[in-house]
């Protein structure tokens, strides 16, 4: 008798354009179903699979499976044929995915560089939640990142080693005395411990890196913008990570420490002035032996 396999898959994502992660199912010689993920990005993604209406198949991770998918192709699930003598099987599932590794553990008290070139004197201020701007009153004091202001446009740099995971840098922000614009240009960096750094308010077309590049602390990313904002030239930096609540995977802001004047680590609570420096020990901190050797030969 011919074995029949019915497969129905629906993927649900919020990102427009080409899917970063796609799932495909195959059957082995015993009739078990293997599900493979193809991750076309340079960073890991967290995939949630929810099975529905299974017939003669038992998933190895329960009816909801959460897997971290590395770049490239990998097997992420196996559904065993429950009754080997029964010919037909049926498989229906949906899946969602988010960039990052939900299982990664952020390094506690890691010190980030201010995202500005060395030698600059800047001011750093905690950013206010957009709800406060919309309502014109302080109604939400949750952490949403830091703003760094400077007198003149400058070069924006990587605050820490990571992989450039996303770039948007083609938007011309119109108007004067702008306070906030959701279309701001940005470069996002994924760090090995699962944290993302998004650097925003960048000059259109000024990117000095591309998606997939590995950057180190102090490496130039782009040029600053914001001259037509109320605060003048500035850059905004937000760190976030994936969090799991029941079976839901979301991004959450995470507060970090930055290197202040004379190397003093600080968590910015009020407006503070900083003299930016990029010491070699910070640049080398997360490098592999091979990367250190290459750096020393420069």
From TrEMBL:
It comes from the Bacteria. Residues 1-19 form the signal peptide. Residues 145-237 form the M23ase beta-sheet core domain. CDD domains: M23_peptidase. Keywords: Signal. It holds the Pfam family Peptidase_M23. InterPro entries: Dup_hybrid_motif (IPR011055), M23ase_b-sheet_dom (IPR016047). This is M23ase beta-sheet core domain-containing protein. It comes from Belliella aquatica. The lineage of its organism: Bacteria, Pseudomonadati, Bacteroidota, Cytophagia, Cytophagales.
């Amino acid at each position: 008798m011919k074995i029949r396999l019915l497969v129905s898959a629906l993927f649900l994502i919020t990102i427009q354009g080409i899917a970063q992660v796609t799932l495909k199912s195959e059957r082995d010689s015993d009739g078990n179903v293997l599900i493979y993920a193809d991750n076309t990005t340079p960073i890991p993604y967290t995939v949630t699979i929810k099975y529905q209406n299974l017939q003669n198949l038992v998933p190895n991770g329960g009816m909801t499976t959460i897997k971290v998918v590395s770049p490239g192709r990998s097997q992420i699930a196996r559904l065993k044929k429950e009754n080997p003598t029964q010919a037909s099987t049926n498989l229906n599932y949906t899946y969602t995915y988010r960039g990052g590794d939900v299982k990664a553990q952020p390094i506690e008290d890691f010190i980030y560089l201010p995202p500005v070139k060395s030698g600059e004197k800047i001011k750093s201020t905690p950013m206010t939640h957009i709800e406060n701007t919309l309502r014109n009153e302080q109604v939400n004091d949750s952490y949403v990142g830091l703003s760094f202001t400077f007198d003149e446009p400058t070069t924006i740099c990587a605050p820490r080693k990571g992989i450039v995971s996303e770039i948007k840098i083609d938007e011309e922000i119109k108007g004067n005395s702008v306070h906030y614009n959701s279309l701001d240009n940005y470069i996002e960096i994924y760090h090995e411990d699962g944290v993302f750094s998004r650097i925003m308010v960048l000059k259109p077309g000024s990117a000095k890196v591309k998606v997939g590049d590995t950057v180190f602390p102090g490496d130039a990313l782009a040029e600053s913008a914001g001259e037509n904002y109320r605060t003048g030239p500035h850059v905004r930096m937000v760190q976030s990570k994936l969090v799991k609540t029941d079976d839901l995977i979301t991004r959450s802001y995470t507060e970090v420490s930055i290197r202040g004047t004379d190397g003093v680590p600080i968590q910015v609570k009020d407006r503070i002035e900083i003299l930016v420096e990029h010491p070699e020990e910070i640049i080398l901190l997360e490098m592999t032996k091979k990367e250190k050797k290459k750096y020393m030969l420069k």
